[in-house]
Amino acid sequence: MIEWIRIRNFALIEEADMEFGSGFSVITGETGAGKSVILGTIGLLLGERADKGVIRNGTDRCEISAGIKLSGDARGKIAPLLEEAGIAASEDGSIAIKRVITASSTRNFINDSPVSLQLLKDIGDFLIDVHGANEHQSLFKPAVQLELIDRYAHDVEELDECRRICEELKKLRVEIEEFESGMPSASEASGLEMIVSEIEKVNPLPDEDKEISARHALAANSKQIVELSSGLIAVLSDGEGTVLDRLSDVYRKFNELEKADSEKGAEFLEKCGSVIGLIKDLSSDIETYASNVELDEKAFAELEERLSAVQRLKRRYGPSLEQVFEVLENARLKLKSYQDSEEERKFFVEREKKLSESLSEASERLSKKRKKAAGSFGSEVKEELRKLGFLKSEFNVGFAETEPGPSGADRIEYIFSANPGEGERPLREIASSGEMSRVMLALKRVLAEADSVPVLVFDEIDVNIGGKTAAVVGEELKKLAKGRQVLCISHLAQVASQADSHYLVEKIVKNDRTSTYITILDEKGRTAELARMLGGTKAAEAHATELRAGKNEKARGKGK
Fold it and tell me: How many CA atoms lie within 13 A of 356 on its CB side?
């Protein structure tokens, strides 16, 4: 409940202090007197952006503050927001909101602690609904409309079931995420399978790369080796005039020398024989060597292909063959872990599937209950609208299917048509603020038990109505104010006469300076203001007296 509002240097208001009680309060005044200033003030307190143009001429700052007492659902919803911002409400649940606006900046406070504009907006959503053109209307939000249908339907078990299932799904998906974070994904497992398959297909052996490289180098030079070896053999031992032939001649000469000098000749003969033996061995070794490196084109191609395959593995997974073996072992281990985890993965998938199916089923049952409730809800709203002058209006609740979630699988929109032949439109698209306010009043009356917003402000609710309809609007506002605070800007005496308190907004010129003043009226002042609203004639004065007398008589009757 708004307990008080204090205004300093706002628009034409130099200074104003207003105290409000519970119940129904009305604000009246001549056209152009500045009644909209009250709405502007409340809008700023709800977090609307401030324009420096609201600062009263000749001053450098504007201050707006309000004392608000939190209770019921609103207190429960707002308390966590305040706690998160480090702000404590008073023991009785009261808070003070203040906004200071200068030409260069805007500062916002709750209980003298600086706060963000967003916090004011968030608090405002639970605290005050302003119903007028382009104003703060929580009932225009589909999510709020859906919540109110559920409240109207009373204790919808399926809604609790949807929320419970969604909470289970949320926890399960956290478990799945944690499980999968330590496991390869399906695509990663596929990659591991490719690694294992590729390496196993080549199936390299330890140090095979070194052995193959040596054999490959040898095979690549085999032709030259064979040719050189054949030449060496020919020089050493195969053919005429070979080294062995010449050494044989030398040996014969040493043999003759031995006959002439047995001691030295024998020594030389022995050494020559050794050389001949070495040459024979060398020739034999070269021949053996050459036979082992015979040129084989097919074998060389196979060797080259094998070397290429091993080198490719080293480039991709190496650079050494030892590292290739490590990669293979790690891939096998991870792949086995993935394969072993498939059973657990299947459990998670099956559990998620069952919960999702349960959510869909609960959402479907919830939707059926909502549609049934929406039918009677729409009928009640149409009846209220009829009382408020919309004799042939249409009001329905439109349903659209969405992805099942904590609120089920419904997205709803309140649909309205004021007159026959007019197309039905979403409630948020109603152009006339008078129509909009009366529709809101009808909704609030039907949802009086369900809607927990404690403060309702109506602007131009009595536009284009009069007489009996105006009296009904006043009665409905009075009924709506039971258990909550209702503020209404009105042009009609039939509405204003039924308020619990009455504020007059006047524009007065003093010393060539125009100012707006706000005054709470006593009984005499109320009767005078009602008479002005009725035309200011003697008959109007009499009618005003009758209206007040009728209102007071009703109040006395209820008090008995």
Answer: 9
